[in-house]
Design brief:
- Helix 2 crosses helix 3 and helix 2 packs parallel to helix 4.
- With about 375 residues, the protein is an alpha+beta fold.
- The chain has two domains: about 230 residues, P-loop containing nucleotide triphosphate hydrolases (Rossmann fold), CATH 3.40.50; about 140 residues, OB fold (Dihydrolipoamide Acetyltransferase, E2P) (Beta Barrel).
- It has nine helices and 20 strands.
- About 25% of the residues lie in helices and about 35% in strands.
- Belongs to the ABC transporter superfamily.
- Keywords: ATP-binding, Cell membrane, Membrane, Nucleotide-binding, Translocase, Transport.
- GO terms for molecular function: ATP binding.
Length: about 375
């Protein structure tokens, strides 16, 4: 088993002009399932490849347990990696693919056979041991790739977007399978993905990355409830959060948000924002915080016209015309303007029992405790 730590680790390319990672400080505990999540180019795969020894470190220190691993050869790290492409040998059977790493390391034939049988049983691959990869489904191939890693009992597993080539149903099955295996083996696991659903459902902790920097490291629930900035709020949660320009105003002795023609009171815990009354902020409201109401419009309610309805069975996803609500702000950072441009209309996720039609104007109540408030200039959570 292994504890893996990054200490001020950096990676630059092109003579130091292009930074893939900047001062990454991250400790992955022994036996932990850590997920690195973020958009393409955020540095998550670079960090993973550094652990494996496939990427040189420009600055800082990488430790595996108490050993500095910056210059340690990949074969000396006892790390198993599962790739996005599966990387199976097409001319070998399932059993031979699983056994390959053990044979390369000179394991005894009887030990190899025993471990292959045990691993195949664990992954429900016993009946496929004599088949070639071409005769397997995508999910079965992924399990073989995992088996090749599991059979070695390594210090740590590294998984680089292993489910991205599977359809939605298989991804769901394999998420549960990988989580089950990790719990059984209690092996340190670092899992890279751009899919926030995988991050939220699989990781003990999740590291959200953007442009080579660690934005927030926390449990999935804390990332959802208490994001540190607009980027994390936008990346965690599906459907994505709604951002709206707002003015902080006083209402019945406490702060409230004036969003276009609507007034949304904030909870008592928002008293700390009182010194900012009169200033511009960004309001963040998740789609599931919208509750349909038949009552009149007033404080705590928001009205919008339905542009399109996605019937998802248990839920309806409403695409709403934001009307007089401004969705952008000139003083925001470039990153946060990009976040807001990506969702120029509001979205509301409501119970599927409601009957809502296109072009209908709907009133919603908004739970004050579900409203996030961000600095309009920096995007930092207030």
């Amino acid at each position: 088993m292994a504890q893996i730590s990054f200490q001020n680790v950096s990676k630059t390319y092109a003579g130091g002009k292009s930074a893939a990672l900047t001062d990454l400080n991250l400790t992955i505990k022994d036996g932990e399932f850590m997920v690195l999540v973020g958009p393409s180019g955020c540095g998550k795969t670079t960090a993973l490849r550094m652990i494996a020894g496939l990427e040189e470190i420009t600055g800082g220190t990488l430790k595996i347990n108490d050993t500095v691993a910056n210059d340690l050869a990949p074969r000396d790290r006892d790390i198993a990696m599962v790739f996005q492409s599966y990387a199976l040998y097409p001319h070998l059977t399932v059993g031979e693919n699983i056994a390959f790493g053990l044979k390369v390391r000179g394991a005894k034939s009887e030990d190899v056979a025993t471990k292959v049988r045990e691993t195949a049983a664990l992954l429900e691959l016993t009946e496929f041991l004599e088949r070639k990869p071409a005769r397997l489904s995508g999910g079965q191939r992924q399990r073989v790739a995992m088996g090749r890693a599991l059979v070695r009992s390594p210090n740590a597993f590294l998984m680089d977007e292993p489910l991205s080539n599977l359809d939605a149903r298989l991804r769901g099955q394999m998420r549960a399978e990988i989580s089950r295996l990790q719990r059984m083996r209690a092996v340190t696991t670092v899992y890279v993905t751009h899919d926030q659903v995988e991050a939220m459902t699989m990781g003990h902790r999740v590291a959200v990355m953007n442009k080579g920097t660690l934005q927030q490291l926390d449990s999935p629930r804390r990332l959802y409830d208490s994001p540190v900035n607009m980027f994390v709020a936008s990346f965690i949660g599906s459907p994505p959060i709604n951002f709206m320009e707002a003015i902080l105003v006083a209402h019945e002795g406490g702060p409230a948000l004036r969003i276009g023609p609507f007034l949304l009171p904030l909870p008592a815990s928002a008293d700390r924002l009182s010194p900012r009354i009169g200033g511009k902020v960004i309001a963040g409201i998740r789609p599931e915080a919208f509750k349909v109401t038949d009552g009149p419009a007033g404080p705590g309610t928001l009205s919008a016209k339905v542009l399109f309805v996605e019937d998802l069975g248990a839920d309806l996803l409403l695409h709403l015309d934001s009307g007089e609500i401004s969705m952008g702000h000139a003083d925001m950072t470039e990153d946060d303007r990009d976040v807001m441009k990506s969702s120029p209309k509001l979205k509301a996720s409501i119970d599927g029992s409601h009957r809502v039609s296109r072009d209908e104007t709907v009133n919603f109540t908004i739970d004050p405790n579900a409203i996030l408030v961000f600095d309009a200039d920096t995007g930092v959570t207030l």
